[in-house]
Design a protein that fits this description.
With 445 residues, this protein is an alpha/beta fold. It has 3 domains: 199 residues, Rossmann fold; 87 residues, N-(1-d-carboxylethyl)-l-norvaline Dehydrogenase, domain 2; 135 residues, 3-Layer(aba) Sandwich (Rossmann fold). Helix content is 44%, strand content 13%. It contains 18 helices and 14 strands. The strands form 2 sheets. It has an 8-stranded mixed beta sheet, sandwiched between helices. It has a 6-stranded parallel beta sheet with strand order 11-10-9-12-13-14, with helices on both faces. Helix 5 links the parallel strand 4 and strand 5. Helix 5 runs parallel beside helix 6, helix 10 crosses helix 12 and helix 12 runs antiparallel to helix 13.
Length: 445
């Protein structure tokens, strides 16, 4: 069995590599010649744990190929997956030009039956538009080659994408014909043999499932952050509250950890698109609007704590930052809370030094030379008036507190991810500020 992947970004590269890993012949196609040349050499354009090794292994076994020629790639293929980017515009609508271009190209190239699968996260109804565009392209050629469409949304978490693909919570597939369903069953047979559930539905419902899943998770995050802020005001400890509600199986323990808001390429974009989709049908998703509002405000919460600690005057203050990516195990800084906090600090006259295990290059691309970049989590502390923790990388969770205190100008930590134990920091004499707990932990050394 052979499949073609259009787009070698995050979703396309993970999808293609993982399909190759289970024994399927895969050819990934992209218009970026430089990126394709690097991939042929086994050089990945993205950081994802485990991907580099799997990429090289499947290239060596001749199961994974890369090309810029879609027409040639589609020959003798059973299915083609559209995995191109769908960024949102200023109004929150998904930009589908790359999806539409892919659909038109498929219509111009296919010479035999093809299953066309939309893997990119797309607004409800996009698969039907893809079908229309393929038909239009065929009409221009004067041919009517049979094809089917399917929607197969991805549910990949950055930092755990390989595991998510190979051991999925569920596989969602939207189809319109028995033939398409049969082909998708064959493609995903290795997963169903291992007991991973597969759900067949219509394409529109499959597209909606993806957005609703991300919107629900974003809602849990904004809800717990809102409650965390209330806990500070009333004197409750959000960490204890979280344990109390997380033990309820109806609620669960996941996505109820307070922090400085969600970021990345999925949640912010998908919430916006779902709100806009509802608006197109004259429906007001008031809960999701509140989710978005809370998240935007939460990204500033740590800055306000820092500003308050220094009595509203940050001019001349130097802030050390641990963590720049929006979450651990990725270099992705799209919509990252760190960007909001750093820009607010700079606007207030502070200077910033930062360390992140993998996101330094991405930070330099976005922030330029506006901040200082360090190669070590302790180097970043030298001359700083406080430490702000913005990403919960594992290497930050058990640091040398004595060294931190020695290198900071004052023993002050702002923990945006609640990774430290307050009592332990009390013993070291830190001024400790976290999310959702109005701690009285200011001690002299």
């Amino acid at each position: 069995m052979k499949v073609v992947i259009i787009g070698v970004g995050y979703v396309g590269l993970v999808t293609g590599t993982c399909f190759a890993e289970i024994g399927i012949d895969v050819e990934c196609v992209d218009i970026d010649k430089q990126k394709i040349q690097k991939l042929k050499k086994g050089i990945s354009p993205i950081y994802e744990p485990g991907l580099d090794e799997m990429l090289k292994r499947n290239i060596k076994k001749k199961r994974l190929f890369f090309s810029t020629n879609l027409e040639k790639a589609l020959q003798r293929s059973n299915a083609v997956f559209i995995c191109v980017g769908t960024p949102s515009d200023d109004k929150g609508k998904a930009d589908l030009k790359f999806v539409y271009e892919a659909a038109k190209s498929i219509g111009k190239c296919i010479s035999d039956y093809m299953l066309v699968v939309t893997k990119s996260t797309v607004p409800v109804g996009t698969s039907l538009k893809v079908k229309e565009l393929i038909n239009e392209a065929q009409n221009q050629r004067g041919v009517a080659i049979s094809f089917d469409i399917a929607s197969n949304p991805e549910f990949l978490k950055e930092g755990a994408a390989i595991s998510d693909f190979l051991k999925p919570d569920r596989i969602v597939i939207g189809v319109e014909s028995d033939k398409a369903a049969s082909l998708m069953k064959k493609l995903y047979k290795p997963f169903t043999l291992n007991g991973h559930p597969i759900f067949f539905m219509d394409p529109v419902s499959a597209e909606m499932t993806k957005y609703v899943a991300n919107a629900m998770l974003a809602t849990k995050i904004s809800f717990i952050n809102d409650i965390a802020n209330l806990c500070e005001l009333v004197g409750a400890n959000i960490n204890e509250v979280r344990k109390g509600i997380g033990s309820d199986q109806r609620i669960g323990k996941k996505f109820i950890y307070p922090g400085i808001g969600y970021g990345g390429s999925c949640f912010p974009k998908d919430v916006k698109v779902l709100i806009q989709t509802a608006s197109d049908f004259n429906y007001d998703l008031s809960i999701l609007k509140a989710v978005e509002h809370v998240n935007l405000a939460q990204k500033e919460i740590l800055f306000h704590k820092i500003n308050k600690h220094f009595k509203g005057d940050l001019s001349g203050k130097h802030v050390a930052i641990w963590g720049l990516s929006f979450k651990p195990q990725t270099d992705d800084m799209r919509e990252a809370p760190s960007l909001v906090i750093i820009r607010k600090l700079l606007e207030s006259g502070a200077t910033v030094s930062a360390y992140d295990p993998v996101a330094i290059d991405e930070a330099k691309r976005i922030l330029g030379d506006s901040i200082k970049y360090c190669d070590d989590e302790y180097e970043v502390l030298i001359g700083a008036d406080c430490l702000a923790i913005l990403t919960e990388w594992s290497e930050f969770k058990y640091p040398n507190f004595k060294q931190i205190k020695k290198q900071l100008n004052s023993p002050t930590i702002f923990d945006g991810r609640n990774i430290f134990n307050a009592e332990e920091l009390q013993g070291y004499g830190f001024n400790y500020h976290c999310i959702g707990n109005n701690l009285k932990t200011s001690y002299s050394s």
